[in-house]
């Protein structure tokens, strides 16, 4: 079983990496980029029978800093 976890900073949390990417895109001539938010994708290869509740627990305890980040789980 495989799962993909998308982790993003919550709205309202300053994203300096996203701002740097937005600035660089403008410097390269890419106009019209109003905002960039940068996150991470974590792919998990799990044993059969692993539940979504277990994956949620992984996110809550390690994969995401739930104070400033949100996450979404996609089962593949």
Automatic annotation (TrEMBL):
> Could you give a GO molecular-function term held by this entry?
phosphoribosylformylglycinamidine synthase activity
Compartment(s) where it occurs, according to its Swiss-Prot or TrEMBL record:
Cytoplasm
**Which domain of life does the UniProt lineage start with?**
Bacteria
Its EC number(s):
6.3.5.3
Q: Kindly state which reaction or reactions the protein catalyses.
A: N(2)-formyl-N(1)-(5-phospho-beta-D-ribosyl)glycinamide + L-glutamine + ATP + H2O = 2-formamido-N(1)-(5-O-phospho-beta-D-ribosyl)acetamidine + L-glutamate + ADP + phosphate + H(+)
Q: Does the keyword Repeat apply?
A: no
Annotated Gene Ontology cellular components are: cytoplasm
Q: Name one Pfam family in it.
A: PurS
Please give the InterPro entries that the UniProt record associates with this protein. PurS (IPR003850), PurS-like_sf (IPR036604)
Q: Which pathway features in its UniProt record? A: Purine metabolism; IMP biosynthesis via de novo pathway; 5-amino-1-(5-phospho-D-ribosyl)imidazole from N(2)-formyl-N(1)-(5-phospho-D-ribosyl)glycinamide: step 1/2
Tell me which Gene Ontology terms the entry assigns under biological process.
'de novo' IMP biosynthetic process
Write out the entry's keywords from A to Z: ATP-binding, Cytoplasm, Ligase, Nucleotide-binding, Purine biosynthesis
Gene3D superfamilies cross-referenced by the UniProt entry: Phosphoribosylformylglycinamidine synthase subunit PurS (3.30.1280.10)
- Is DNA-binding a UniProt keyword of this protein? no
Main location per the UniProt record? cytoplasm
The free-text function statement in the UniProt record for this protein reads: Part of the phosphoribosylformylglycinamidine synthase complex involved in the purines biosynthetic pathway. Catalyzes the ATP-dependent conversion of formylglycinamide ribonucleotide (FGAR) and glutamine to yield formylglycinamidine ribonucleotide (FGAM) and glutamate. The FGAM synthase complex is composed of three subunits. PurQ produces an ammonia molecule by converting glutamine to glutamate. PurL transfers the ammonia molecule to FGAR to form FGAM in an ATP-dependent manner.
Listed under subunit, the entry gives: Part of the FGAM synthase complex composed of 1 PurL, 1 PurQ and 2 PurS subunits.
Family membership noted in the UniProt record: Belongs to the PurS family.
Q: What is this protein called?
A: Phosphoribosylformylglycinamidine synthase subunit PurS
Q: What organism is this sequence from?
A: Celeribacter ethanolicus
Q: What is the lineage of its organism?
A: Bacteria, Pseudomonadati, Pseudomonadota, Alphaproteobacteria, Rhodobacterales
